[in-house]
Amino acid sequence: MDDERIIELFNERSEQAIDELSRKYGAICIKTAENIIGNTRDAEECVNDAYLAVWNKIPPESPSSLVTYLCRIVRNISISRCRYNSSRGHGGQYDLCIEELEACIPDPSNAYDGTGEKELSEHINDVLASLSETNRRIFIRRFWFLDPYDKLAKSTGLSENAIRTRISRMRDQLKDLLTERGVYYERK
Amino acid sequence: MNANKLMDAIGGIDEKYIMQYADEKPRKIRRFKRFPIPLAACLAILLCASLCLGSWASNNIKPNRGMSSYLMIYFDFERALQSCSDIVTAKYVGYNDDLTMHIFDVTSTVYGSADGQIMVYLERGYCRFKDYEGDNFTYTLGDLKYEVGGEYLLPLYKPSSFGVYRKFENYTLVRDIFINVNDLTASTMYGRPIAEHAKGIVFDENLTVEALSDYVKVFPAEAPPRDNPTAEYIHSDDMKDIVSGSPIIVKVKVGELLDTIDEVHAYCDFYSCTVTESIKGDLKVGGEYKVEFFGGTVKKGKEYIVAVKKRCMRDDPSVVALLYFTSKNSLFKVKDHDKIVEIVNSAE
To answer: What is the pLDDT of residues A159-171, one digit of tens each?
Structure first.
């Protein structure tokens, strides 16, 4: 069933909408949530919560891309769950990604915090636009979908070490761009 | 700014990127650009090996055939044990690719005569009971998770007939009773804790395999006598037994190979053969028949003497569809001709 028809079903308040959504995008959602949380049971719960969220949001919302819309919700819910789990030391890939991103911030507690999230996303878009196709793929799969390194290696055909090196360079690139634009700077 | 905020901001990137990379699949890796032919040869060898070993492979293979539904008469644990012909403890070796035939090495015989390497057949399907007094339930028949190398107590039933070409003695597991001897408390029957179905024994931490074995072997021994399984073939390697017990003995010339079965449980070749001499029975010289041999035992163009039975067409019994062996040792060399004729004549 195409996305437009699924959205129509949501608008008609037909419960078939969730079945169709699950049938079409369930696998992507579970994979995304599992990457973030590292736990199938919690991942399934997050995905179910995401379906419910979509049910509550459409209508009135009408997303232009259903898969992106759904994946964003899954990601947000999974990250929230992960932050809760992390406080108990069960973070999965999320903790690792956060550590990697912290490495871009030499002194996180004192770093400038005046930029809005949306503005920050725009800066990241600019960095992504400057990357090669392969590097962009690696960055998004690592920090958006939170793929582990072995999976990234399989999907790109590169070795895990090569992936780590590329990610390290991309982090530096992000750090340089943010610093250059005054978004984030190190306190001397 | 902290890393969490950066992570949230990454979540808000342009959706074109998310769409582009949402459904990620492993990319084919081509590392050997200079030697495609040796690489292809290696892959072909690996493919052949995997085909040969496929049926014994890892536990990740899923059943690949449709599942039936069954309505079953309910037996509790003790009643089910009464229907056993054999009870053994055995180590799990492997299975065929539709998860119905499982191979075990018997480690001890608790009741009956099963020994050595055996094949245990598990019917697959969805099952419910027509007369269960508790809350009725449906369960998946044959969905048992044996682990290679694991040791299990197997209540078995020997079918009334079994084919001569089977590589192993063939049994059916009784009522999906699943008992891991290293974890008796996790035992199940009909996919549920065995405690729901066992009346006279408690599967707790104090239960030992010895005590369980002593308990289970009582029930088949006390059960009313039943017909012994009728062997479909002669269990002997003595020429006299085989020749005397076989309705047809003919000398045949092996023609074209028609078919081969090469599976976990059997390896057979089907050849078109011409009868060149009839020693016993009613087959005419010159007649052409399909004969089932053990795999790789005969050669095209050669002559052999075979002790066989007919399998006729169901809708026309006058037509012989197949000749099959009367024992595992029913293939003789032509040089044995005189000995065989002598046995046949002495019996008449």
So the answer is: 888 888 888 888 8
